[in-house]
Amino acid sequence: MTAPHPRPAQTLTTSRLEALSDGVMAISATLLVIDIGRVRVGEHEKLLRAILDNWPSYLAYVVSFTVIGLIWVAHHGMFDRVRAVDRPLIFSNLALLLLVGFIPWPTQLLAQFISDGGRNASIATAVYSFVMMLIGLVFTLQWWYLTRHTDLMVESVTPAQVRRSLRLSWVSPVVYASTIAIAFVSPYACIVVYVGLAVYFARGPSARALVVGGQSAPESGGL
Amino acid sequence: MTAPHPRPAQTLTTSRLEALSDGVMAISATLLVIDIGRVRVGEHEKLLRAILDNWPSYLAYVVSFTVIGLIWVAHHGMFDRVRAVDRPLIFSNLALLLLVGFIPWPTQLLAQFISDGGRNASIATAVYSFVMMLIGLVFTLQWWYLTRHTDLMVESVTPAQVRRSLRLSWVSPVVYASTIAIAFVSPYACIVVYVGLAVYFARGPSARALVVGGQSAPESGGL
Amino acid sequence: MTAPHPRPAQTLTTSRLEALSDGVMAISATLLVIDIGRVRVGEHEKLLRAILDNWPSYLAYVVSFTVIGLIWVAHHGMFDRVRAVDRPLIFSNLALLLLVGFIPWPTQLLAQFISDGGRNASIATAVYSFVMMLIGLVFTLQWWYLTRHTDLMVESVTPAQVRRSLRLSWVSPVVYASTIAIAFVSPYACIVVYVGLAVYFARGPSARALVVGGQSAPESGGL
Amino acid sequence: MTAPHPRPAQTLTTSRLEALSDGVMAISATLLVIDIGRVRVGEHEKLLRAILDNWPSYLAYVVSFTVIGLIWVAHHGMFDRVRAVDRPLIFSNLALLLLVGFIPWPTQLLAQFISDGGRNASIATAVYSFVMMLIGLVFTLQWWYLTRHTDLMVESVTPAQVRRSLRLSWVSPVVYASTIAIAFVSPYACIVVYVGLAVYFARGPSARALVVGGQSAPESGGL
Q: Which of C21, C47, C199 to probe by mutation at the D interface, max D CB count within 10 Å?
């Protein structure tokens, strides 16, 4: 914010990009609730039963809201260390937001078909994994770009730290890619992996990097 | 913002967390209107009648919008006194936002079934109370955590004041928990309690604490 | 923002209240588009015809978006002159936001019934006018409160200027109240009045007051 | 932000106008996902087939999200060079937001009818082009106004640069106007033009102007 050094030419400070990103992430997360949908109760059916039968919707809501929360954490972990954005970062960030804004759709697909079992459940889960893998890849791409343009980073960050972030950023797309295959064996196993990945990032270096806030190692890695 | 003392290591200033939280609260409150739904008028029905028959939707909208407004007041009452957030606060705050973003769903459930009477009305009201109780418990958890980490608070706040906020933060989850039981006696009685709780917080020490803004006792307590 | 004088005790600066208000207004305005709904084309119907037949939806969208835009202008016209908010202002502002967030509902009602003609069109228009009248009354209430608490205003504002704003703030609720009656004569005449009121505020002292930004007379009045 | 020169009388700084604009753009872009809609699978139909058959929805989502992203870039390209807004800029900006908030509707129309072929596809595409042309015209109008009121610009911007921006701002409305005609020959050709225009702006002077951030030529032109 108050960096004593001038930002590189042809760049923009990050505050507006962060404001737009925070907006899209907040809206996308909150729109998830729309797809939970109304509980329909038949003539002789019990409401509590109908509410409980709706469990895939709640599960999908919690998983996707958590993922968006972790994307927000990872995004700030990155842009806390970036002091200026140039055109490739602006447009890769718009691609990231396009994918984040899309999350409610695969979420609703997952909620609709996970309890169907069979091939439909596998395909819905694979589509969900595919979208998440793409999001992870955009983060990897951005970290790779930053290893090449370390002048865009705040001064306290060393090139070795950026390279470390790049390596860590591979975890998320690789794990999500593997769940595309796992989906055809067991969609529920994918849910377990999603939750495990969330716990890993919530406990792991990505979150730690965020809260360190640039005063220490920029270990933030991808999703 | 301009605290003369450095923030503790491994922490983050609160401004971004507040921006995301304000976004989710504003969106969740405004999404409530989507569930009011279209008025359907039959062949020989009068529109005014149909509009008036829709009263549970308006009631649910007003109750939930007010609750979200009070959560916003309580949230600022807390983070006005917090000068830095660490990982447990970031993730408990994401849990809070997950629940706040979920509010439109129990609200629509309440609107749909409160006028049905009988068991369905009780269950819908109990579910609503349950979600609100969880939100209150997250606030209590956060105040409890802050009593253990007073270095995260702004300097003018004394440990005694934080403990007082913790005690006050129990009001909301305890009252909402009690309405889970009351729902099975009279759902309408729950609405009365919800309104009473809103009035209590609007008039009471929670709101007073907010407007004092850290210059006086941090009495802010939970929802 | 950087007033050299301390804010009064028991108050809060206005920045957060404005951020929440901007959020609710932006969301409410943008949600209006959801109610325009899909165009349905029958077997032998032409799409262009179906799109044009949907005109009440576009009209209602434009009228309500414009009204929310003017509310935003009036809101900033007020809070540019307010340097601190106390509890009554916070809660009257939440009431304002509750009503602004509700606007998509009467808008959709208007779009649905204005072209029906007869009593339904009158009732839908009257409901729309009623909600807008309530919004105007909250502004009037706030200006009245500010005439009693001029210490909450920025220093350059004189009590006479606040009283002038209070008088101007009556225009909007009085005009909207009159359209409740007009709706039962001619709903379309109400639309003409809505547009006229928008032009009046866009050209009139309210907008002028906004752009003057506190350096001149605070003529901002209501909606 | 910290311009050493006073802003002209009867004007407002741009920060709030930008905050509202960012909000509407973020919400409008994210609401696009709602119209993608649920995938319906018949008895003997395959889910993957149904998902793939839904391609017009994804295409329309990507095109419109990208367009809103570029509008955001162009908007900041303009307001980075504007140091104060007066009433015509405020109200033309509200008109811009009204149109941006409307984008989900023509987007859904395009998604619904593009694969129909025939006249309906042409009309849906022409309506889409028409709305985009209007958005481009508002930018042109604003640049024209700024050539007449260069005192509203930051000091480093020369009148020649503003005139250059005005000339560039004609690209977008002229191209979109031409696609209204092209739509009746081939709707798919319009999609190609939309994508080409997006690439032009992403690579071209508009984006370059943004990232230069006022330190160089203000080449930002329209959409």
A: C47
Per-residue pLDDT of C177-187, as tens digits, reads 999 999 999 99
pLDDT at position B130 is 97
Comparing C-alpha atoms, which of D75, D187, D63, D71 is closest to residue D124?
D187
Q: Quick check: B31 and A36 CB within 8 A?
A: no
**In a 3-state reduction of DSSP, which class is residue B153?**
strand
Please judge whether B26 and C27 are an interchain contact, meaning their C-beta atoms are less than 8 angstroms apart.
yes
How many C-beta atoms surround the C-beta of residue A141 within 10 A?
18
Mutate to test the interface with D, among C30, C36, C54, C199 (most CBs of D within 10 A): C30
> What residues in A contact B29, CB-CB < 8 Å?
none
Neighbours of chain D (3+ CB pairs under 8 A): A, C
Cα distances from D8 to residues D12, D13, D113, D214, in angstroms, run 9, 10, 49, 19
Identify the band that residue C41 occupies on the pLDDT scale cut at 50, 70 and 90: confident
CA nearest A33 in D: which residue? D34
Across the interface, which of A24, A90, A103 has its CB nearest the CB of D29? A24
List chain D residues with CB under 8 Å of A120: 41, 47
Tell me the residue ranges of DSSP E strands in chain C. none
- Answer with the residue of higher pLDDT: D165 or D220: D165
The answer to whether the Cβ–Cβ distance between B211 and C86 falls below 8 Å is yes
- List phi, psi (to 5°) of A82: -100, 130
CB C143 within 8 A of CB C169: yes
C69: confidence class by pLDDT, cuts 50, 70, 90: very high
- Decide if A82 contacts A89 (C-beta within 8 A): yes
- Band the pLDDT of D220: cuts 50, 70, 90: very low
Q: List, as own/partner pairs, every contact residues D99-102 make where C-beta atoms lie below 8 angstroms and the sequence separation is at least 24, other chains included.
A: D99/D131, D99/D134, D99/D135, D99/D138, D100/D24, D100/D25, D100/D28, D100/D68, D100/D71, D100/D135, D101/C29, D101/C30, D101/C32, D101/C33, D101/C65, D101/D24, D101/D27, D101/D28, D102/C33, D102/C61, D102/D131
Where does chain D have alpha helices with state H? 15-31, 47-53, 55-79, 87-102, 104-113, 118-148, 159-168, 171-182, 187-203, 205-212
Report the distance separating Cα D167 and Cα D12, nearest Å: 26
Q: Beta partners for C85?
A: C12
Q: Does the pLDDT of residue C130 top 50, yes or no? A: yes
Amino acid C97: pLDDT = 96
Name the DSSP letter for residue B85: B
Which residues on chain A are in Cβ contact (under 8 Å) with B113? 47
User: Which ipTM value was assigned to this complex?
Assistant: 0.86
Asked if residue D121 lies in contact with residue D114, where contact means CB atoms within 8 angstroms, the answer is yes
The confidence score (pLDDT) of residue C204 equals 62
Beta bridge partners of B82: B153
The per-residue pLDDT of chain C, averaged, comes to 84
CB A101 within 8 A of CB D33: yes
- Give A38 to chain D, closest Cα distance, Å: 14
Closest chain A residue to the Cα of B87, Cα to Cα: A211
Given A20, A28, A113, which is nearest D47 (Cβ)? A113
Extract the residue ranges of chain B whose pLDDT is less than 50.
1-4, 206-223
Q: Which stretches of chain A score pLDDT less than 70?
A: 1-13, 43-44, 204-223
How far B165 CA sits from the closest chain A CA (Å)? 25
- Asked whether the beta carbons of C206 and C220 are under 8 A apart, the reply is yes
Q: Identify from B98, B107, B115 which residue to disrupt to test chain A contact, counting A C-beta atoms within 10 A and taking the largest count.
A: B98
Closest CA–CA distance from residue A203 to any residue of chain D (Å): 29
Question: Is the pLDDT reported for residue D92 higher than 80?
Answer: yes
Percent above pLDDT 90 for chain A: 52
